[in-house]
Inverse folding.
């Protein structure tokens, strides 16, 4: 009977080692799109650094090929400065969830192994980032880049 009791204690300790000492955490980042300013990339821009506003709204279809309404801007006449405002184009928003899981394996009262797994952009959501806002560039009005895809970092540490 004492061996049965010892076996039960061993099973509880083993079960405690398997399901105990876990830590789970997460971090959610949600941002609206950045305010972007139109620019110029033409050979005849003179002193101008911005295009002229045409009076048409810059809000567009928000597709990869055409994020904003490119007809909202036109090149200024040579020798004139552009009159478009700054921050009139809204970039893509983003939602990123980072998570981590940590498991401690006690060895003695003062020492333990700690295993951790950290997941950046856990859901692997595509978050568009760069928008070409320079009038005259080959990719004017389109999405040019994305934020990082999912990354995983594993670690094992010994505390004593």
């Amino acid at each position: 009977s004492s061996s049965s009791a010892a076996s039960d204690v061993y099973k509880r300790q083993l079960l405690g080692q398997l399901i105990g000492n876990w830590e789970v955490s997460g971090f959610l980042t949600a941002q609206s799109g950045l305010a972007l300013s139109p620019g110029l990339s033409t050979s005849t821009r003179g002193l101008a650094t911005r295009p002229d506003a045409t009076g048409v709204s810059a809000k567009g279809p928000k597709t990869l090929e055409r994020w904003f309404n490119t007809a909202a801007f036109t090149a200024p006449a040579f020798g004139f400065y552009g009159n478009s405002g700054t921050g009139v184009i809204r970039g893509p928003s983003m939602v990123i969830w980072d998570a981590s899981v940590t498991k401690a394996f006690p060895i003695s009262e003062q020492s333990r192994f700690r295993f951790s797994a950290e997941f950046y952009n856990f859901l692997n959501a595509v978050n568009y980032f760069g928008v070409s806002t320079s009038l005259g560039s080959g990719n004017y009005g389109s999405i040019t880049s994305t934020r990082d895809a999912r990354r995983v970092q594993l670690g094992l540490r010994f505390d004593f």
User: Anything to note?
Assistant: The two ends are 37 Å apart (CA to CA). The longest strand covers residues 94-106.
